[in-house]
Write a structure and sequence with these properties.
The chain has 211 residues and is an alpha+beta fold. The protein has 4 helices and 9 strands. It is globular. The strands form 3 sheets. The protein has a 5-stranded antiparallel β-sheet with strand order 2-3-4-7-8, sandwiched between helices. Strands 1-9 form a two-stranded parallel ribbon. α1 packs across α2. InterPro entries: Peptide_deformylase, Peptide_deformylase_sf.
Length: 211
């Protein structure tokens, strides 16, 4: 079942998406309509190129978003990009807490990171993982604040902002849709170590084997 076409994404007084209300009910509604799909992993070509812009905002996109929420839940993730389930489209979903424990749930179509002034950036050097590099973690410095512009599932323009862990999620998922995995931002040594961790362990969810 597709989402209602007249659904409106709530916006706050500063023009940002209100993604902290009714999170549990909204996430449940998405995934109950959706079907969980296996996760593509590093080495799959769809993960290593920029995805296509979304130009059609209808039932097909709504079904994809439902499936993404279902897949994210199965894999116990906090964010998921469309190419992580093999779909070449600029869409990501999230169900992620920030550092204050506030839950954020939503969808961004055709996302773009807003460049922050260099002087205002504060880097957070924390562990990062990825459903497409299962069982591996590495420390990666990212700005502790992020803004993303894009569209909602109906094609309306939106802005999303986040701090701490949620800021990391917004950057991580946007990276995916432009062909970058977090391990691509690591040193050669740390990237090799992450791939070793992946090879030595078994993922807890279904993946798409690379040929």
């Amino acid at each position: 079942m597709a989402q209602q076409e007249n659904q409106v994404t709530p916006i706050d007084d500063e023009g940002y998406v209100v993604d902290t209300e009714d999170c549990e009910a909204r996430e449940l509604a998405y995934r109950e309509r959706g079907t969980s799909r296996p996760i593509t992993v590093v080495g799959n070509p769809v993960l290593h190129r920029e995805c296509k812009d979304v130009t059609e905002f209808g039932d097909e996109l709504a079904r994809l978003i439902d499936d993404m929420f279902a897949s994210q839940k199965t894999a116990e993730g906090v964010g998921l990009a469309a190419n992580q389930i093999g779909v070449d489209a600029k869409v990501f979903v999230y169900d992620c807490p920030d550092d204050d424990g506030v839950r954020h749930t939503g969808v961004v179509v055709n996302p773009k990171l807003v460049e922050q002034p260099a002087g205002s950036r504060v880097l957070d050097d924390s562990n990062e993982g990825c459903l497409s590099v299962p069982t591996a973690y590495a420390s990666l410095a990212r700005p502790d604040y992020a803004e993303v512009t894009g569209q909602d599932a109906q094609g309306n323009p939106i802005k999303v902002r986040g701090t701490g862990y949620f800021a990391r999620c917004l950057q991580h998922e946007t990276d995916h849709l432009y062909g970058y995995l977090y391990i691509d931002r690591l040193s050669k040594r740390d990237r090799k170590d992450a791939l070793r961790q992946m090879a030595e362990n078994t993922p807890r969810y279904e993946i798409v084997p690379n040929d």
